[in-house]
Automatic annotation (TrEMBL):
<feature type="binding site">
    <location>
        <position position="89"/>
    </location>
    <ligand>
        <name>Mg(2+)</name>
    </ligand>
</feature>
<dbReference type="GO" id="GO:0046854">
    <property type="term" value="P:phosphatidylinositol phosphate biosynthetic process"/>
</dbReference>
<protein>
    <submittedName>
        <fullName>Inositol monophosphatase</fullName>
    </submittedName>
</protein>
<dbReference type="InterPro" id="IPR020583">
    <property type="entry name" value="Inositol_monoP_metal-BS"/>
</dbReference>
<comment type="similarity">
    <text>Belongs to the inositol monophosphatase superfamily.</text>
</comment>
<feature type="binding site">
    <location>
        <position position="91"/>
    </location>
    <ligand>
        <name>Mg(2+)</name>
    </ligand>
</feature>
<feature type="binding site">
    <location>
        <position position="74"/>
    </location>
    <ligand>
        <name>Mg(2+)</name>
    </ligand>
</feature>
<keyword id="KW-0460">Magnesium</keyword>
<dbReference type="InterPro" id="IPR000760">
    <property type="entry name" value="Inositol_monophosphatase-like"/>
</dbReference>
<keyword id="KW-0479">Metal-binding</keyword>
<dbReference type="Pfam" id="PF00459">
    <property type="entry name" value="Inositol_P"/>
</dbReference>
<dbReference type="GO" id="GO:0007165">
    <property type="term" value="P:signal transduction"/>
</dbReference>
<dbReference type="GO" id="GO:0006020">
    <property type="term" value="P:inositol metabolic process"/>
</dbReference>
<dbReference type="GO" id="GO:0046872">
    <property type="term" value="F:metal ion binding"/>
</dbReference>
<dbReference type="InterPro" id="IPR020550">
    <property type="entry name" value="Inositol_monophosphatase_CS"/>
</dbReference>
<feature type="binding site">
    <location>
        <position position="92"/>
    </location>
    <ligand>
        <name>Mg(2+)</name>
    </ligand>
</feature>
<feature type="binding site">
    <location>
        <position position="215"/>
    </location>
    <ligand>
        <name>Mg(2+)</name>
    </ligand>
</feature>
Length: 265
């Protein structure tokens, strides 16, 4: 069995440790259930004190560990450049987090140029940790995962993320197409975990019309290693701005792609 390069293996192990500590911090700061606590950046786009604190913690730790690596965060933007670049979403699913709900996560991905290499996604309130290293598998709590084998649309579960940046007619067109297939639509409010659900077979597909790199960086290597098919998010502008993403199990991916008119790689 081949083994990963020591440099990448070291980085994945370090990322796992840093994300674990960051997730503990986020849990300690999590609001009690109830009305949302935080500030609105835009319609339904929440920012909490925890977002900034967790990102600063991760940024500081990764700089100390790998000072030559680049770093990009949702709140702070690109703070360092390098051939290897860490991309963090300190709290993905902030609208859930701000209300004391459980479906949120800390996501950290590693890119080499425009190639996703490794990812760690921890959902501490769910007691789940996803890890992946390109070429060496995808795991949930240490156990290998694969995309589902569902091929019949009437048996499929498809999630679609909502964003205020997407016109309502566009959103409804895609939802209608999903329902016309006979699939069951879902929306959970956390893009990184939805993509992880596709990788683990809990969902058969996920679509979001405008999503950012920090939302997906930790999940892209997970999807690749789990055998899912993904639209060309990075090629189509995801490295520098918002872009569309569709991920699906390989048995239903083309059918879903044709229905919602989002091409696959």
């Amino acid at each position: 069995m081949k083994t990963p390069s020591p440099a990448l293996a070291c980085r994945l192990e370090a990322a796992r440790s840093v994300v674990r500590d960051a997730a503990r911090m986020a849990m300690a700061m999590r609001p009690q259930p109830g009305g949302p606590q935080g500030e609105l950046k835009a319609a339904q786009d929440w920012l909490t004190e925890t977002d900034g604190a967790v990102e600063a913690f991760i940024a500081g730790r990764m700089k100390a560990l790998f000072p030559d690596d680049g770093f990009e965060g949702e709140e702070g933007g690109v703070t360092r450049t390098g051939s290897l670049r860490w991309v963090v979403d300190p709290i993905d699913g902030t609208s859930n987090y701000a209300r004391g709900r459980s479906r949120w996560c800390v996501s950290l991905g590693l890119l080499e140029g425009d190639e996703p290499m490794a990812g760690v996604i921890e959902a501490p309130a769910l007691q789940e940790v996803y890890t992946s290293l390109r070429g060496y598998g995808a795991f949930l709590n240490g156990k290998p995962i694969q995309a589902s084998r569902v091929a019949e649309p009437s048996r499929a579960m498809i999630e679609m993320g909502w964003s205020g940046r997407v016109p309502k007619p566009v959103f409804m067109e895609k939802i209608d197409a999903i329902m016309e297939l006979g699939a069951m639509p879902r929306s959970g409010g956390c893009g990184a975990l939805a993509l992880a659900d596709v990788a683990s077979g809990r969902l058969d597909g996920y679509i979001e019309i405008v999503i950012n790199l920090w939302d997906v960086a930790g999940a892209l290597p997970l999807l690749a290693e789990a055998g899912a098919r993904v639209s060309p998010f990075l090629r189509d502008g995801g490295l520098t701005g918002g872009a569309v993403i569709m991920a699906a199990n390989p048995h239903i991916a083309q059918t879903l792609s044709d229905a919602v008119r989002i091409p696959l790689e």
